[in-house]
Specification:
Strand content: under 5%
Largest sheet: none
Number of strands: 0
Number of helices: 5
Shape: globular
Radius of gyration: 16 Å
């Protein structure tokens, strides 16, 4: 079976967690995204992407915001160590610092198919 890219799989895990929080674990789309994350197979990711596209725009926005927050939190947690991070002194620099650690391109399953 064909497996998805490891970066896409990590992003799918964050999306799955965000969808479970926003839509609930019993939601059909949430379950399919979770299945795609657990299996890592392209056919499951494709099915989850098609179902995700059926969500109303306002739900997609809520899920996107939650996933974005979770991605930043996971990045902050991974970056913690015992040394002083002098870049964190200015709050204006904090957003720039976090943006540098995230990939610049959206994973393929998150690209909006409505357009």
């Amino acid at each position: 079976m064909s497996q998805i890219d490891p970066l896409d799989r990590r992003a799918l895990g964050i999306l799955s967690s965000a969808m479970n929080k926003q839509l609930g674990v019993s939601n059909l789309v949430s379950r399919e995204v979770d299945r795609a994350y657990r299996s890592g197979e392209i056919k499951d990711v494709t099915r989850a992407g098609l179902l995700f596209a059926t969500l109303p725009r306002w739900q997609k926005v809520e899920v996107q915001r939650e996933a974005h927050d979770k991605a930043y939190l996971s990045l902050k947690r991974a970056d913690k160590n015992s040394e002083r991070d002098w870049r964190s002194i200015s709050s204006g620099n904090q957003r720039k610092y976090l943006d540098e650690g995230l990939p610049g391109q959206l994973p393929s399953f998150l690209i909006d198919r409505d357009n």
